[in-house]
Specification:
The protein is mostly helical. Helix content is 77%, strand content 0%. It has one domain.
């Protein structure tokens, strides 16, 4: 994995943690449980061009659809 992607993943964890007032451990647990890390890495090419609010919104949107899939 490229260091740019790792750096970006850490950045996403930090902004999500700050925005949601969560601990790093809580974010990592959430991301691991619902494969958010894979989502971020798979969408790196698009997400890394976005701002903090959009990245947080995209993660929340991913989680919403993952937690409440359309049947």
């Amino acid at each position: 994995m490229h260091s740019n992607k790792i750096d970006f993943l850490i950045y996403c964890i930090e902004i999500y943690k700050s925005c949601k007032k969560m601990s790093g451990k809580e974010v990592i647990t959430l991301f691991d449980r619902f494969c958010v890390t894979n989502f971020i890495l798979d969408c790196y090419d698009v997400l890394h061009t976005e701002g903090e609010k959009t990245i947080t919104w995209e993660i929340d949107d991913f989680l919403t659809h993952h937690l409440n899939p359309i049947s």
